[in-house]
Amino acid sequence: VFERVRIDDIRLSDIEPPLGKTRKSIALLGCFDPVTLRYIGGDKPYELCDGQDRIGNLIPFGFEEVDAVVLPKETTDAEAALIGFLANAARRDNPIDEALKLKRVLTTGIAIGELAALIGVANATLEQRINLLELPASLIEAAKNGVVSASVALAITKLPRAEQIQLENVLKQHG
Prior knowledge:
Helix content is 49%, strand content 14%. It has a 5-stranded mixed sheet. The protein is globular, with a radius of gyration of 18 Å. Helix 1 crosses helix 2, helix 3 packs antiparallel against helix 4 and helix 4 crosses helix 6. By secondary structure, it is of the alpha/beta class. The protein starts with a strand and ends with a helix.
């Protein structure tokens, strides 16, 4: 169902939206692309499945409502997570946000092999991405901010924990 929904009625994820191209286009033109929500009831009756960047960038400009495609109440947690993940699969998120989204999908009960088959990648690829979340905190932040590339961050996950901590200390000292 297509609806106009108050932003205050939407439960947002804890992933911060980037403040780049989306913010500039919203400042100039507003938001033309609807977000995808799932009706869940309660004090914030909608859960955001797709559109975190758009909503996060609408709020500073004082927008109070957004156009939305609202999924039926019967939509399961797994379906909602998968819809959000697949809607963003083509976009190249930073590796940490991608890992967080993968983890969310997997916590709904979808097996890693099933997800890998759905999106056409190897299980190992998904496991590597999720392993990024096991890095020391400042290395996670560096990967999220592009200071450390995805390929370097993935290589660091294969090192023993002591060496990861040494690299974290070098990063803290030298940037």
